[in-house]
Amino acid sequence: MDVIAAPHAESSSDHRNQTIDMTLDRSCRTFWSSTGFPTEECSHFLTYKLDQDCMIAYVSVKPYRSAYQHQMPTYAPSFITIISRASATLYIPRIVFHLTIATQLFYLPHMVFGRYVTVFMEEAIQKQHGDNLHYVAIEHVACKGIPLKMLEHYPTITSLVRSVFAKEKQRPLAIDTEALREYMNDLDTTDRILSFLEEGRWKTAADMIIQSSEGSLARSNPMLEAFLAGLSKVTPYGNQDWVFQCLDYFFDQFVVHQVQLLHHEATCLAAVSVLRGEVETVYNCLREELIECTVELGNIFYQVIECYVKMNKFGAAAEWTLRSYDPDQITSLLRQLTVGHPRSVLHLFSMAMLR
Prior knowledge:
The chain is α+β, with helices and mostly antiparallel strands. It has 12 helices and 11 strands. It has helices at residues 155-167, 178-198, 202-211, 221-234, 240-256, 263-276, 280-287, 295-301, 305-310, 314-323, 327-337, 342-354; strands spanning 4-10, 32-33, 43-63, 77-85, 89-91, 95-96, 104-124, 126-128, 133-135, 137-147, 174-175. Strands 1, 2, 3, 4, 5, 6, 7, 10 and 11 form a 9-stranded antiparallel beta sheet that branches. Strand 8 (126-128) and strand 9 (133-135) form a beta hairpin. Helix 2 (178-198) packs antiparallel against helix 3, helix 2 runs parallel beside helix 4 and helix 3 runs antiparallel to helix 4. It is elongated.
């Protein structure tokens, strides 16, 4: 996740259309350029303000290649230093910048806490033929990290961050934990899911969500809401039946892969089933014990018990109602069902109670 919120400062710029702002768009035609120097021995910097307090993992920098100049020169620096600032300054060691047009990633030795990031560049090796001056030009800069507000999904990490930061008020926080690195991978997964949704590849997005582990961001309620919103955007001509077909696929995969539904996933399935009056998927999840029955879900599904009856699934109706742990509902259902099938229904209820 790119955590840069806005440009903050620059050492210089060669033109009003070549400022630090140009490094934050994705166009290959825009770039930041330094002013020209008569020798290679020069230094420049670009400073960015982050989206609130963040844990920083790495910074990516792409130099600018001038396609309209003779031999298409690349205006890259020789060395890069990454500087993170909070209440004090933390310098990341000087790193060699390779002469290539590819984006280069500069991983920090620790997950570093900061509010600002500076890319400090040394030595402008490329000379511009028109004026024989040396320039550095950067096409794009990104800072990958974790906004601290997002750590609420991981209480253990949050407490670790807070405890260390309390002891380190005079300098930026530096932690190196496997949990944080796993969280970065989790963020990358959610970014990929959202990208697939934007591309209309909802099946791929659905598969990635279901294959993610419990407790991951991909299985969180916000991601489920984003998935539902993504389906709405790619719905052909507002076809609600098409959305239901997509949701059928999504929830059927829980059964196929034997994945336990989390509470918000089960609640969503309940709401969709009630809306449609279709409970086959619920029955399959119940039969495979992939749903943890609660009073809340029991109250939702009590509205569609008649669907079970119409499908001649008296056992499912009995079992679901019993699992809701609501005595009034159990009594009411017994009264309804025993009118036409007294012996069979009582037998099914007794079997459900034994389970």
